[in-house]
Design goal:
The protein has about 450 residues and is α/β, with parallel strands linked by helices. It is built from 15 helices and 24 strands.
Amino acid sequence: MKYDIIIVGSGPGGYVAAIRAAQLGRKVALVERAEAGGVCLNWGCIPTKALLKSAQVYGYCRNAEHYGLELAGEVRPDLARIVARSRAVAETMSKGVQFLLRKNQIDLIAGFGRLVAPGRLDVEGTEYEADHIILATGARPREMPFMPVDGEHVITSKQALTLDRLPGEMIVVGSGAIGSEFAWFYASLGVKVTVIEYMPRMMPLEDEEVSKAMERAFRKLRASVLTGTTVKAVRVNGEGRCEVEIEGRKGAETLSADIVLSAVGIQSNIEGIGLEELGVAVERGKVTVDSFYRTNVPGIYAIGDIVPGPALAHVASAEGICCVEAICGLNPEPVDYTTIPSCVFTQPEVASVGMTEQQAAERGIAVKIGRFPFTASGKATAAGDRDGFVKLIFDEEERLLGAHMVGASVTEMLAEPTLARTLGATAHRIARTIHAHPTMNEGIMEAAEAALGAAIHL
């Protein structure tokens, strides 16, 4: 069968690209070997957030007295029901994607797609043709030779979503978004958690002040955080316990736990899809593309986790729209990778966009910094969530370079500084924009005022 556009992979990059192409009048097919919606909807972003919500509610119940409430009896987490709810949420979202595909008359082809020639794709023995083929095959958890995954004792994020019991002790290797979120989830439910991070600080991609705040938050949760620490080997002993050899500030030692979660990054799914046979350029495990996601082979495109750039669902969606609109002759603006919002859904949450203070210093940029602690926020105080802050970084012309936030619901606040940076907003403009009171978002206005030396509540 002949299509205008075939997209391989139905994650946030693939299905969004497919819908946009259909909206532009193209005949579209979407190839998927697993569940519609890809890893994000089924085994990543969405089910993880469902788990985290259950842990948050459990925390509220345990602290009910703080809000003047009395609960009769003991509140206990039921992991089986928490997991069941998470899986139901994922299934609901996957069905939603299938509905959108049907609504937009997009053919969903089940199976593994492999390029056999420019404009030709094999799916489980059946060949399909298209003028344009977009690869959006996503990524999977990276496995390290010193930490072999068996799915029972040494696990990845996928198994962490569906454990059938709460372990007594868990070691999480890696403190990026995935590692930190699972560490917070299990620690919140009473598991003794140790986070091991190779880099000198937790959440190493975040602003240094954010990293320090989150290390304090994890220790407050009674989770151990070992930074500047290397994992040398992971073994399972005869009793089914994991033994983890590490080397850190205290020298070499061996830790023990029921389960080790490997959260050391992801690896692009580019094997076996025909790249080598067609001569599609690949560098360092990523497909080489231009600003509109064209590879070096005419008619072949790539987006999402298999191309250079942040491996985030919303980035893949933006790339998919840009790619399709370029194919359809709309001349879209290239994706601005300097203004990519990033979120970590721990408690407190972490939200950031743009440059960190350290990045600005490395580039020799003189900056003005405004901070606002949530201890001074009426809304945060009323809600009982006063941990965290807003940190805004401006250049000498007072244009926003970056925003970094720690606190309750700061991921919902991130759109404002992201838009402000996109539009080139100044500290003065942000400070003079009236923000509703009482809201957490006032913290952004207050931080801008602080950068101008005009803070009211500090």
